[in-house]
Amino acid sequence: METGILTRIGYALVSLFVITNYGLLLIGSMARISAKVQGRVGQPVWQPYIDIVKSTAKRNSIGHGIMFYLGPVFRLAGGVGTYMFIPAVYGSVLFRNFSDSGDLLLVMYFIFFGQLGMALGASEGGHPYSAIGVSRGLSQMTAFEVPFALSVIAVAIQYRTLDITAIVAAQQGGFWNWTVATNPLAVVAALIAFLGMSMHNPFSIVIAPQEIPIGPPTEYQSNLLGMLQTNRAIFNGAKLVLYMNLYFGGATDIVTMVVKTFLIYFINVFVGQAFPRFRVDQSIRFFLGVPTLIGIASVIIAAI
Amino acid sequence: MSRAKIPYVPPEERAFPDLDSGKYLVMWQGPNHPGITGNMSLRLVIEGDSVVDCETHVGYLHRGFEKLMERRLWMQNFPLVCRIAVPEPDFNEYCYAAALEELAGIEIPEKAVWLRTLSLEMIRLASFLMWIGGQAGAFGHGTIAQWSVTMRDYVLDLFEELSGGRIYHMYIIPGGVRADVPPGFLRHVLETMTVVEQNLKDIELVMFHNAVMKMRAVGLGYIPRDWVERYGITGPNARAAGVRRDLRKDRGYLAYPRLSFEPVVGTESDAFERARLRLAEMFQAIDLIRQIVDALPAEGAFRERLPNPLHWRIPAGETYVSAECTRGEYGFYVVSDGGDKPRRVAVRGPSYTHAVSVMERLVRGVNIADVAGLMVSLHTYPPEIER
Predict the structure, then answer these.
(1) How far apart are CA A124 and CA A205, in angstroms?
(2) Is there a domain that residue B46 lies in?
(3) pLDDT digit string (tens) for A7-40?
(4) Which residue of A has its CA nearest to B143?
(5) Mutate to test the interface with B, among A40, A134, A277 (most CBs of B within 10 A)
(6) CB–CB contacts below 8 A, A to B
(7) Residue B367 has what DSSP assignment?
(8) Which candidate among A84, A178, B325, B327 keeps its CA 20 to 30 Å from the CA of A172?
(9) Best residue of A210, A271, A284 to probe chain B, by most B CBs closer than 10 Å
């Protein structure tokens, strides 16, 4: 039975609410795990909620023009847009979102739309650190895009579709049908790109406190910062669900989704705690080196 | 005008770029910046992401230590001198106390000699632990920073047990030390050294066998050997350049001549070599602490009886006393006119050279991402610059 548009919007909002909360708890729990590695007690798991409430409750005192205000809006739109066209749980009416209305290309567009919007907004801030952070962010984004795009091309060739639901469907039936088993090189290239996308060490060059304190969001405060913090949760969740769908067989229930995405995100923390930060040029050179070659190899394997 | 190359400017000259050309960006790093070592700032002129010129700005912490000391009684200066280098106050205490003893002709007891040496090596270890956290943190490796700061806290626990203070100890006083070791203290020292040593091995594994760390630090901030004499570079910065200079060996003060150790000397003279050398000196400090604990006399006086400090007049004269601190030669030049206050005190802190003369020259051509890492690799404390 076809679901009405209003019902679907309602389901999408519920799904968005769930992924926002999951994303916040994920950030909180990973911060806690990082603290344990560092020998600290760490913040409470619910600290991201407190941060958002605090930021949102404050009044904005500095403005830098319309684009400055629109930056976080674009960023949030990018996060929400990414998530809305991915099926969070395969076969679920509630969590399928609008995945039947868009494909992988649209999702990739939304991934970068938010960052470009944020770049425009932050550049309006006028602070040198914002501009340098934007320049660093876009440079790194261009670089990690290469292995990620190659990996997506490999997946598209392998499953002969760009429809995410169809890609998940093709991986059903057990571990040996997952992309990680059928084309592991594509997964390796994508996961390395994921480290860059998540901006954890060694790719934390955009925020880089000791170099360009906080970078693009230097001038952002109050509710604008709250918006960026909210987007961070949604965007993280969306990226994780996308990776789960493309490479790890998707999820047929919410528990599987939570377990798989948690483990994927954990790679960030695992690597991030063990390495310092690359310099910008080193990061770009890295992404355009071995990960790109792995990506090309994965495309060749998929084509054969 | 070419945007590709930064023109070469000899180290002894300033670049003076044309700021009206629109080609450069002036950027301040500090005084409030996670990448600056304390209360100072760098005015950077950058082209693209490379530093063309740098000017250090100090004065944010100026208290006029040297002038203040001329208005206070000899003994009243003790709570003041330790504040000149906050993370390692004991070197100030030692130099000032030793200068007074030399002028007043006071011999300190044998036990005090060993306790002073113990105190100096403990604070050397604590200071290096704080530094290595800063060095790793400057390259974005927060895990190391958290580990090392925790270890430093364990050493500060020992100071609290010994002197009652964690940061400012005021343990070394003229005539000896302020108190004997409390019961069980030496056992706590040895236990703590075991924990710190194990942690340092972990840090060595994670930080010094790390490909990204090597990419960041190897070749960064190379100090040519002839700069050591030209700019008065001392300590690990000089030793990393291959200069075997360590006052503990060269002047043999306190109990150092009776301890078995050799100065650690490097060859590469870059940020990575300096870090590696300081790590080796941390292991060396642990070894020295263990030797001191073994050799510390169980009995005997720990200080000489002094005259009433409120009426203490030190015979006229002048002296210079120095010690090897974590950053190099730390010295106090003290002049007495026979009164109850110093006539003049001049402090020689190694940070003045390292953070001003050397930093301004080394930073040219460096990527702005590496400025913090370079600054920390020189290991400087701004209060020393503005005494």
Answers:
(1) 20
(2) no
(3) 999 999 999 999 999 999 999 999 999 999 999 9
(4) A38
(5) A277
(6) 76
(7) B
(8) A84
(9) A210
Q: Quick one: tokens of B55?
A: 């000017």
Radius of gyration of chain B (CA): 22
Sheet of B50-57: strand order equals B25-29, B41-47, B50-57
| Residue B166 binned pLDDT confidence (cut-offs 50, 70, 90) | very high
| DSSP character string of A182-251 | H-HHHHHHHHHHHHHHHT-TTS-TTT-TTTSTTSGGGG--HHHHHHHHHHHHHHHHHHHHHHHHHHS---
The verdict on residue B244 lying in a domain is yes
Nearest CA in chain B to A39: B147
What is the maximum span of chain A, computed from C-alpha positions, in angstroms? 59
B339: containing domain: 65-349+368-386
Q: What tokens appear for B207 in the block?
A: 């930080």
ipTM metric: 0.90
Output the domain CATH number for residue B128: 1.10.645.10
Å between B48 CA and nearest CA of chain A: 9
In a domain, B36, yes or no: no
Q: Rounded to a whole number, what is the distance in Å from the CA of A146 to chain B's nearest CA?
A: 21
Tell if the CB–CB gap between A275 and B368 is shorter than 8 Å: no
Q: How many domains does chain B have?
A: 1
Amino acid identity at A262: F
> How sure is the predictor about B86, in pLDDT bands with cuts at 50, 70 and 90?
confident
Q: Of B141, B203, B218, B375, which to mutate for an interface test with A (greatest number of A Cβ within 10 Å)?
A: B141
Do A277 and B141 lie within an 8 Å CB cutoff? Answer: yes
Question: Given CB atoms, is B371 within the 8 Å cutoff of chain A?
Answer: yes
Per-residue pLDDT at B3: 44
Region B266-295: mean pLDDT is: 96
How does DSSP classify residue B336? E
| Average pLDDT rounded to a whole number, residues A235-251 | 95
Residue B80 lies in a domain: yes
Which chain A residue's Cα is nearest to B206?
Answer: A274
